[in-house]
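Hey,

The postdoc asked me to send both predictions to you directly instead of through the lab channel. I've kept everything plain text so nothing gets mangled by the mail client. Protein one:
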Amino acid sequence: MNAQPDKPQAGPEVRIAAHLAEDMAAVNALIRDRMASEHAPRIPEVTAHLIEAGGKRLRPMLTLAAARICGYEGNDHQKLAATVEFIHTATLLHDDVVDESERRRGRPTANLLWDNKSSVLVGDYLFARSFQLMVETGSLRVLDILANASAVIAEGEVLQLTAAQDLGTTEEIYLKVIRGKTAALFSAATEAGAVISGAPEAQIRALYDYGDALGIAFQIADDLLDYGGSAAAIGKNTGDDFRERKLTLPLIKAVAAADAEERAFWQRVIEKGDQREGDLEQALALMTKHGALTAARDDALAWSDKARKSLEILPEHPLRDLLSELAAYVVSRIN
């Protein structure tokens, strides 16, 4: 009898979800309960459209995993996980209005199905709900962490608006933008899970550092894939960031190395928005010429390494090993 080929192992996020299945069931029940509204039925309609669209729930899982690694036995980590998911959903609703997006997770966006006003106001409602959940844990420190993250997220979005289409945008500004866009909520999710557990300060810091580095690696990898990934892998078409004139890390590195003629090209396609047939190919050629794609990839791998190393001081736990795998996995798409 022929041996059956081994099934490919599920990704670490799937195995983390399996490990936390009981906690996640409680979080999902909490989310459904708290997104209800007695007086405004549109709120659960809009929220359910996004929350139930098949997202991986990665951020709430990070909170639960951090708490469990630190030996937490209560259920306040479930409230914090729901809080993190509400903050994330609120920012997505607002982002889609700002970006005038039409697709999210393969489905029409809420602002397209309803309208911009509904998306903004429902996002505001979810922020308010998230703060109610935070307060219920009775931890001022957790409230401080998540309130600060909410401010950093908003600050990052405004910074992105002012940095958009500006060739003077540096790698330092880019890092601030992606800390707001992605890493701030990752690090708040892991830090809050450690704090609610009463973990030692060194472990709290380690989990904050992990979330920060994981978020940065994740976002750089995502930005890199725009210049060389399939639509199925990244949920958007290759070159979308270029067409939208977004200054992501590969482009910033290429602009920094540009000569006068190349700079004139970047000014035309990014600052002026005068894009023509063959410009994407020309942009890719310039990025390749100056090693911008390779350098951005090296940066993503370095942040992934930093995330994994930060876990070393944590207690031995299956979830610690899975978080380490997750840090490698988020950049495996660009290897």
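Protein two:
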Amino acid sequence: MTDTQTRAGFAALIGEPNAGKSTLLNWMVGAKVSIVTHKVQTTRARIRGVAMDDQNQIVFVDTPGLFRPRRRLDRAMVAAAWGGAADADVVVLLIEAHRGLTDGVQAILDALAENMSHVRLALAINKIDRVKAEDLLALTQKMNSAYDFEKTFLISAERGHGCEDLKHWLGEQMPEGPWLYPDDQIADLPMRMIAAEITREKLTLRLHQELPYQLTVETEKWEERKDGSARIDQIVYVSRDGHKGIVLGKGGETAKAVSKAAREELQEFLGRKVHLFLQVKVRPNWLEESERYSEMGLDFKDGNA
């Protein structure tokens, strides 16, 4: 097989928080490489998932949701999202069918027109099962009047409707050339970071309100054992003493439940036994520490006002 028979490139998924980017990425890749929760702003780093479509390789960049940043972490996340879009061969803007052309989506379109007019942009209207066919048609026309999209796809990332068409089209848009990754590799994130993301997802699902965004998880140690299992030690950093008690729960029950759920998912992901140990530590200023950003795959400097 010659190089010219294969294609490989990058596709970025952008949109407002909770538009379904992580769900779509996981469907495309066929495995869980990006955390999916009902809460917004859960994806912090540009997570790359690798998908194959015949002889075409699509490296997906799952970006944090684009929103109005308030804190250093927010600004770094938004910078990562725009950086992911700027570096991609094709960008897919994901919007929710039932929400339509919101102020947030309009702001994204304005920013694209102003700073990234060179970017090839497709539209994916997600969660199509939530609206009537005539409303979907009207929204499609409205969006294409607002921006000159190369192609529009109607999808349900959760159910997989329309996703195959989108994947196939993206595969055909990738530049000709050799594959960037082995065909059996699904993500270029280090396993330590994937493990931390899985634990953070379980914490986010278990806890409520502002706390999940005031914590981070780091994989401190990863030990391969002779019996084929892995021992993983992780630290949950929180910014206040009161948060530590919430994460631990009464008698440590919350931390135990989170650890059990994360361990089970890690075992399924790795296909082997995992021993997971969690510690909770208070670091009041972790949001201002550059090494915490590096662990999340973000650039600390991007958080500057």
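Summary for protein two, as requested: The first strand starts at residue 7 and ends at 15.

Thanks,
C.
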